[in-house]
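Onboarding guide, step 5: your first structure request.
Type a short instruction followed by the sequence, for example:

Predict the 3D structure of this protein.
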Amino acid sequence: MAVPAALLPIVGPADDALVTAQRLGQWCSRAPEMEEDVALTNIALDQLGTARLLYSLAGELEGAGRDEDDLAYLRDQRDFHNVLLVELPDRDFAVMIAKLLFLAAYQCDLYRRTAADPAGGPLAAIAAKAAKESAYHLDHARLWTLRLGDGTDESHRRMQAAVDEVWPYTHELFEAVPAARADWLSTVEPVLARATLRRPADGWAPTGGRAGRHTEAMSYLLAELQVVHRAHPGARW
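The system replies with structure tokens like these:
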């Protein structure tokens, strides 16, 4: 069942957060050091918590009896509205960090603007909480970008390759509010410069995620995410 168009400004960011949580969860026990395992798990839980709050709000506003579990586990791929950036496979640790840096910078600005809306109501309250968490996510990704970009020759090569690979997908973040990209660039570009990384030129800009057109990777991700709920509908712990 598709989500009403009026709820897409809530469901889109919720889908971003859910898919990000799933991707970060795949790093559990695979991070380069134990402390990073814990850090990435915490960031994943933050993203999952935000997704739950947004889905719950969307379900209430929809008034069709769907709750957060229905929206997370019982929609098909075409009914998800996350940006393509978050569903991309993490080819290596550097790709994951580049994705997190770009996404967190976007989320920080989005949540701060939403929280500042005096007519925002429950959505503004959710955004205020998420903004604080996103600030930590951004700082964590920034520190790793600096560490890898301005590290060894090999870490620099991998981080530059990751930035180059992920950059085209960042344009989709700003299709709804193009002017917001300037603030995002003012956050991201100094990090890249300090990390001795080259800012890629703008060009190819894949899109479609917000409209439900996803990469092949999304089908595999959803299969893993939804398999237990769909195999045991209505189950309770």
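Each response can be followed by summary notes, for example: The first helix runs from residue 8 to 25.
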